[in-house]
Design brief:
Strand content of chain A: 5-15%
Largest interface: A-B, 43 and 43 residues
Shape of chain B: globular
CATH class of the largest domain in chain A: Alpha Beta
Structural class of chain A: alpha+beta
Oligomer: heterodimer
Helix content of chain B: 25-40%
Number of strands of chain B: 12
Shape of chain A: globular
CATH architecture of the largest domain in chain B: 2-Layer Sandwich
Distance between the termini of chain B: 36 Å
Low-confidence stretches of chain A: 1-5, 24-43
Radius of gyration of chain A: 18 Å
Strand order of the largest sheet of chain A: 2-1-5-3-4
Strand order of the largest sheet of chain B: 4-5-8-6-7
Number of domains of chain B: 3
Order of helices and strands of chain A: HHEEHEEEHHHH
Distance between the termini of chain A: 52 Å
Low-confidence stretches of chain B: 1-5
Helix content of chain A: 25-40%
CATH topology of the largest domain in chain A: Ubiquitin-like (UB roll)
Number of domains of chain A: 2
Number of strands of chain A: 5
Chain lengths: 206, 336
């Protein structure tokens, strides 16, 4: 297995995106996903999965080559370059990887990519309008400076956007319950709730 | 926390679209198959490399396994119906609020959106020695690491332990036993229906399994009879953190009261034994008694008779005693 050394002076994000853009997915996947290609193709039984599938991500159909055991968070970050989705615990505990599947918040670290076929996947990158106008929740975060290090921010924002689709006018307590599946290592919950509440208010104003 | 590996080891993935196709796959792979619904229990085992599997049979594309139907005044809930759907379903809330409440207190919103009722009642034991891959009784070995002089066993069993001291971690399981639910289990060419309280298996019966489900079988539905619809329900879950966490102790009860007298009761406590523990002695003792604080206190004392706490879980005895008493007093009573 080839070891890949990250070039000095290049950020992790730029590096990941560079790898994806350079079409080096096939060679890097073996490193990033630390696996081999044995056992590919599950035989002829009903329900065996294909390697090449189409995912609908942020309104676009994307063809992607995935492994049976690959999680959606891995695919989004390392195959599609959507590094806004963070991997924190990788155990469905912290919420940093939250994305929307058919408008419902889910932990993408704990969804097999194959389980997301035929669903509309929405990541933090898909929230802003094509002209760059921020989603009201993002605008609320900017206005209230809701996060410290902000590693957890994309997950919180996606959880809030999903929650507000079904609860457009929550109290602060209800909103806290709505994003209770997300953790902030900086313990910045009060400011986060203020920012998300501000965003909810902006959403209601349309 | 276990070491984080990049992904799970390779397995073949199958996403059948019918129960029959799923059963054929389970038959084909035998012990090598791993049935997966929401996957939230599965992924920990595979990511941690504590269990491996050759083939995962993922049930998410089987439409007939999902949904809530009204049948004869009761309900039939497909095994892959999510906990969110159950917690929010108007009929479940109105007539079987006990289950709606239990489902709504499981884990976190994201997990409830994905986790299923069938998965919640079929999840594996949550002993960290077992989950960390130690070769304990439950893993086929000949020692319990959670029951040694130096073991950390704050979350473990106080009742009916038999070599293994792990507990049933489910919130919906006690509710289903209290509602006298039954579980529909299919295999190739056959079906059997098991009472909820017989679905859960203690270590005395089979130390390596938590449920009566055999590897070639699929839990397809959960049936709730009309008998307890609209009864007076009580569910309470105590946990360290008010979100995500598994119960330290939970209690589910269904009670029929007439003129201040308890007519009948089903009461079940979770996370104190390897199965959801139905307290038949309490049920018998309070039937026909006035619903008073004295009756509630008597029920609590009776509930914990014979409890054998380990080094660090003695607190579960008064916790269980008080939760049972609170269930008898009911949600309307002042809590102390």
């Amino acid at each position: 297995m080839t070891d890949v050394v990250r070039p000095g002076g290049v950020s992790r994000r730029t590096f990941i995106k560079g790898v994806v853009a350079a079409g080096a997915v096939a060679s890097s996947a073996g490193y990033l996903l630390r696996t081999t290609l044995v056992g590919q193709g599950g035989g002829a039984s009903a329900g065996a999965v294909e390697r090449l599938i189409t995912l609908n991500v942020n309104g676009r159909d994307r063809r992607v080559d995935i492994m049976p055991q690959e999680t959606l968070a891995m695919t989004l970050r390392y195959k599609l370059g959507l590094t806004g989705t963070k991997i924190g615990c990788d155990r469905a505990e912290c919420g940093a990887c939250t994305v929307l599947l058919d408008e419902v918040p889910r932990y993408s670290c704990s969804v097999l990519t194959h389980m997301a076929r035929k669903k509309r996947i929405m990541t933090i990158e898909g929230l802003a309008s094509a002209d760059g106008t921020l989603h009201p929740i993002q605008q609320g975060v900017v206005e209230e400076q809701g996060f410290q290090c902000a590693f957890c921010m994309p997950g919180f924002v996606m959880a809030a956007v999903g929650f507000l689709k079904t609860h457009p006018n929550p109290t602060r307590d209800e909103l806290a319950h709505g994003v209770s599946g997300n953790l902030c290592r900086c313990q910045d919950y009060d400011k986060i709730l203020t920012a998300l509440s501000r965003g909810a208010e902006l959403m209601r104003r349309g | 926390m276990a070491a984080i590996h990049d992904v799970m080891p390779m397995f073949a993935l199958y996403q059948p679209e019918s129960v029959d196709d799923a059963l054929r796959l389970l038959d084909q792979f035998g012990a090598g198959a791993w049935t997966m619904a929401g996957g939230l229990d599965t992924f920990d085992w595979l990511k941690d490399r504590t269990k491996r599997t050759e083939a995962v049979v993922e049930l998410g594309n089987i439409a007939e396994l999902s949904g809530i139907k009204e049948v004869d005044g009761g309900l039939e809930i497909g095994a892959t119906t999510t906990l969110t759907e159950i917690a929010q379903h108007p009929v479940v809330r109105q007539r079987f609020g006990l289950l709606a409440e239990a489902a709504g207190l499981v884990a976190s919103p994201q997990i409830r959106h994905q986790g299923t009722l069938g998965g919640n009642v079929s999840q594996d034991a949550r002993c960290w020695y077992y989950r960390a891959g130690w070769p304990c009784y439950r893993a086929g070995g000949n020692i319990c690491y959670a029951d040694t002089p130096t073991a950390i066993n704050r979350e473990h069993a106080i009742l009916h332990a038999d070599r293994c001291v792990a507990v049933s971690p489910s919130d919906t399981a006690p509710a289903l036993v209290a509602l006298d639910a039954s579980l529909v289990i299919r295999r190739l060419g056959g079906e059997r229906v098991v009472a909820a309280q017989d679905y859960f298996v203690g270590p005395g019966r089979d130390i390596t399994r938590m449920t009566a489900l055999r590897p070639d079988e699929l839990l397809t539905a959960i049936r709730i009879p009309a008998a307890w619809a609209g009864a007076e329900f009580y569910f309470e879950k105590v946990r360290d953190r008010q979100v995500w966490d598994f119960p330290l102790v939970n209690v589910a009860s269904a009670m029929k009261v007439s003129g201040g007298t308890i007519q009948s009761l089903r009461i079940v406590v979770g996370a104190v034994a390897a199965t959801p523990l139905r307290l038949t002695a309490v049920e018998t003792a309070v039937a026909g008694k006035p619903r008073t604080p004295e009756t509630a206190a008597m029920a609590g004392r009776l509930a914990v008779e014979g409890a054998q706490p380990l080094e660090h879980n003695g607190y579960k005895v008064p916790l269980m005693r008080n939760l049972v008493a609170r269930a008898i007093r009911g949600a309307g009573a002042a809590t102390t």
